[in-house]
Design a protein that fits this description.
3 helices; 15% helix; twelve-stranded antiparallel beta sheet
Amino acid sequence: MIVRWLLLLLPLLAGCASFQEVPSTAAPLQAQVQDQPFDVAGRLAVNLDGKGHVAGFDWQHTADDDQLAIKTPVGNTVASLHRDSHGVTLLADGQQQFASDVETLTERQLGWPLPLANLVWWVRGHPAPQFPYTTTPEGHLQQQGWLIRIHRDAANLAQPRRVELEREGLTIRLVLSDWRQFVPLLPVAPALP
């Protein structure tokens, strides 16, 4: 059922790019940063070996918790994902699934991994701090086997507008259309003696 809803959203995604955006390079991340909460909504498109799926999403993130709702074109939630210190729970089609991490759960249930642990950094235009990364000559980020292209709205360069991920026949595109809370990443304060 989720796949059917995702397929219905494909035409909506194609017709919604009416803003001026500019490619952006990933901002280098300081060695020690403090994760900040955010709340964003948008559209998600996934193409796996030529098969496409699209959906809307609402995502609330804190350092300890993620709530991700996948939505139909009219805004009905068809799946929800919750991550906390105990693991990840996916609720879809009246069934609840559990795994230790998002990548394992989405690979098992959807056939492709959603790299949520790194995506929380990439959607803010930064590499994930716990893994090495490189940049391409075009300024795109490469990390954990993913090529990440970050695009920003020309009128608001503070936060990314679109993030595209590619890896081994899989493309994931997020259009971040409604940043309801965005706090820049902050350096961790040094410990007092």
